[in-house]
Amino acid sequence: MIVCTIDDANHYKGLSHALDMAIEWLVNNKDTQFVKGVYIIGDSDAGEVFAKCEEPALVPREKAALEAHRRYIDIHVPLKGTETIGWAPVGQLVHVRTPYDESRDVAFYGDAAQALLHIRTGQCAIFLPEDAHAPNIGLGTHRKLCIKIPINA
Predict the structure, then answer these.
(1) Has this prediction a pTM greater than 0.90?
(2) Ordered alpha helix ranges (H), the chain
């Protein structure tokens, strides 16, 4: 897991072509007034890199389930306000709530988050497959980008 400002995300380029593509797009578009929908960033050897602009309802911390992906890296970018995200290492989780669904590339866990991250506008959080995360913690709604970066399995 990486938490940084959007501009500092450039330091993490070089891990993969698809991640580089996503970071460059994010840095170049950080001041864009995104509307709800899907934005195609480009194609990589592993598949399509894209961003979803969402306006999800926030949930209380105790109801936020940790999720993990195997085929995608996620970059969460709050566009309005602060997004609180729980985090725990997948390798230490023991309470599977929903087993891994390959078609949706997600598993859900009932374990408690080991850390809470408060990601502000102008910052981003990058979650790798070994990072379980519980996004959208709080009250009300917010607006965010979730960038999906495919990885080679």
Answers:
(1) yes
(2) 17-29
